[in-house]
Write a structure and sequence with these properties.
The complex is a heterodimer of chains A (110) and B (513). Chain A is mainly α. Chain A has 5 helices and 2 strands, in the order ββααααα. Chain A has a single domain, classed as Arc Repressor Mutant, subunit A (Orthogonal Bundle), CATH 1.10.10.370. Chain B folds into 3 domains: 147 residues, Fumarate Reductase Iron-sulfur Protein, Chain B, domain 2 (Orthogonal Bundle), CATH 1.10.1060; 170 residues, no CATH class; 136 residues. In chain B, β6, α23 and β7 form a beta-alpha-beta unit. Classes of the chains: A mainly alpha (110), B mainly alpha (513). Chains A and B meet through α3 of A and α10, α11, α12 and α23 of B.
Chain lengths: 110, 513
């Protein structure tokens, strides 16, 4: 599968996760978000950008607890909980936010 | 591409009488097939052969091999008299009404092929005995419906012959794998655990970072140095736990619980970055070699770290693998006799069960008075317990029959004041699967997962309505993830599900034991 934007094609897997994280850019993120019925706000970008930062260091998405803690520390304690993250990404921050951030899908018993 | 499909939960039933059949209701729901890269990474053919005859012959040859190797499979193929006792026992049948999700019909997908190639009557008069050729359509049907079985074994409890559909499903999946028709979710995960050490693909540094974060949090919460040690040489206990315990909610709450138990009891312990996964998806494919490869990581870690005990966390199917297969696969427990198994045998302390379930360890400590609780800390919860299928029907705990039912319940009653049971016929050996077990915990099967959760949700609703239950405890990572996802479809909060050691964590006394 693939998504197309501004004349460029981005390969994805069956579920719409980008195959090559290096191809990611903000436009393709917005397009994926749209397909997930998410309108990207600055709060969404805070999470997506943190995910990419963490992934660059550890080659994996952060644990949900690591994510909530980091978001709370950086952007205000009221944001440091999973309820807030589920409001932003209703299908679950681990999977939906990763998809928008261009990260591979976390797998396992989650 | 479209947005996520809108899925609706079926209405809770007023009566458990079998509803009208919905033929082929789930025929269109097929989970993603593994691509060549995923298949080849675990030593399987990348895809189906271009020539059907080649696939056909390979599948029949594999089936013959499995029938020769596993007497059980042959008995299960021969013994069914179509009495109908199993028909309404499968949660997927109950939730979907699709007759092919009746256990007997699921078995018949293979039985019809078995009769054609392996019985005289089927070879001579196929039409008279319900025998059919293996065609591409039949193989596709296998793929669809053998990946709509969670291998929970509930049907086998009600079968007068004890026919275990889970074993039939495992054999079918094994055959599908061998001809290059594997499932993406399971096979991708097996590749990750082989390469990285866990199903998630959590690298050593990421694991370390997560554990350090936990230590900081607990220091803040309790003022104590509760440790989550990684790769500590010479620790007494090696804890093997599903990697979801490091990553997901509510799983991580149980990990915190294990850490507090070890801390309070003063037991030295460690996790391993090499064997950072308890889950063993090799079981789901019915492939002992796959299962063994995953399990050997545990042995390697145990030998390298020099531990005396191997304790495992809250994970359902993995406990079945550990309890029933680790002995012969790895020598953890008696059975294997290769040099490494013998070495491990002499290293482990046999005053303790090897392996031991964390619930066995915690319950022993409670009985010895080595850990104490403030039960009122759980007073905001009215708790019930969901028995996980592979623990309930595939294994045991403790020294007495039924220990796998009693020990988790005993722990809950020791750490909390308010505990109630769900209705009879939905618990213990008759427990209903959460709806996401056996390799089905994947997003594209969400519709099946929501519908398959129906009977458990009905039982839960009853104790919610009558006794005000607001917490369902379980000891399986898949159950936790599945319920977190499907509870909202049934108008419950996702935080309603959690681990037994989450309850332990809430009530355990740390400073004043």
């Amino acid at each position: 599968m693939a998504v197309e934007i501004n004349g460029k094609t981005y390969e994805t897997d069956e579920e719409g996760y980008l195959l090559d994280i290096n191809e990611w850019n903000e436009d393709v993120a917005k397009l994926i978000a749209e397909q997930e019925n998410i309108n990207m706000s600055s709060q969404h970008w805070e999470v997506v950008n943190f995910l990419r930062e963490y992934y660059n260091e550890f080659q994996i998405a952060p644990a949900v607890r690591v994510l909530t803690k980091a978001i709370g520390k950086r952007f205000g304690a009221e944001k440091g909980n999973s309820q807030y993250l589920y409001e932003l990404f209703p299908y679950g921050p681990a999977k939906q936010a990763c998809k928008i951030a261009g990260l591979p899908k976390p797998t396992g018993c989650i | 591409m479209t947005g996520p499909k809108k899925i609706e939960a079926p209405a809770l039933r007023q009566s458990t009488a079998v509803a009208a059949l919905q033929p082929d209701a789930m025929a269109g729901l097929k989970c993603y097939v593994a691509n060549e890269k995923i298949q080849q990474a675990i030593g399987l053919p990348g895809k189906l052969a271009a020539d059907w005859q080649e696939t056909h012959d390979a599948a029949i040859a594999k089936m013959g091999e499995l029938l020769g190797k596993y007497r059980s499979l042959k008995v299960f193929m021969d013994a069914c008299v179509h009495c109908g006792a199993c028909t309404d026992k499968c949660h997927y049948f109950i939730g979907t009404g699709d007759p092919k999700n009746m256990p007997v019909a699921r078995q018949d997908l293979m039985r019809s092929v078995y009769r054609r190639y392996f019985t005289e009557a089927g070879k001579l008069f196929p039409d008279l005995v319900g025998a059919r050729d293996l065609s591409k359509e039949v193989l596709d049907e296998w793929y669809t419906y053998y990946w709509q079985c969670s291998e929970c074994r509930r049907c086998s409890v009600f079968c007068p012959f004890g026919i275990d559909t889970a074993e039939v499903t495992m054999a079918a999946r094994h055959i599908l794998d061998t001809v290059g028709y594997g499932q993406k979710y399971t096979n991708e995960i097996i590749g990750k655990v082989n390469n990285i050490g866990n199903n998630l693909g959590l690298s050593g540094p990421a694991l370390q970072n997560t554990l350090e974060g936990l230590e900081e949090d607990l220091k803040e919460d309790t003022g104590l140095d509760i440790k989550f040690p990684l790769d500590v040489q010479g620790a007494e206990v090696l804890l093997i736990t599903p990697s979801a315990d490091f990553f997901a909610e509510p799983h991580i709450e149980s990990l915190i619980g294990y850490g507090k138990v070890f801390h309070a009891a003063g037991i030295s312990w460690t996790l391993s970055s090499h064997a950072s996964e308890f889950g063993n998806f090799g079981l789901f494919n019915g492939d002992y070699e796959m299962m063994r490869k995953v399990a050997l990581r545990v042995r390697k870690a145990a030998l390298e770290l020099g531990v005396k005990r191997i304790v495992v966390g809250e994970c359902g199917h993995a406990w079945r693998v550990a309890y029933s297969f680790w002995n012969t696969l790895t020598g953890i427990g008696a059975g294997a006799d290769d040099p490494f198994a013998v070495q491990l045998q002499s290293q482990l302390d046999h005053r303790y069960k090897q392996p031991a379930h964390i619930c066995e360890l915690t319950w022993d400590l409670i009985q010895q008075g080595r850990i104490k609780f403030d039960k009122s800390a759980n007073d905001h919860r009215i708790i019930t317990f969901h028995d996980s299928c592979n623990v309930a029907r595939g294994s045991r705990m403790g020294d007495a029959p039924g220990g796998q039912f009693e020990i988790p319940r005993n722990i809950i009653r020791a750490v909390a004041n308010k505990y109630v049971e769900m209705p009879q016929g939905t618990t213990r050996e008759a427990t209903f699967c959460c709806g996401g077990g056996g390799g089905l915990l994947t997003d594209e099967l969400l519709e099946l997962r929501v519908k398959g959760a129906l009977p458990r949700m009905e039982a839960l609703q009853q104790v919610v309505d009558q006794q005000g239950v607001n917490f369902m405890a379980t000891i399986c990572a898949i159950c936790k993830a599945q319920f977190t996802k499907v509870l909202p479809y049934y108008n419950h909060k996702m935080s309603m599900v959690g681990g037994v050691h989450q309850l332990v964590s809430t009530a355990i006394r740390l400073g004043d034991k």
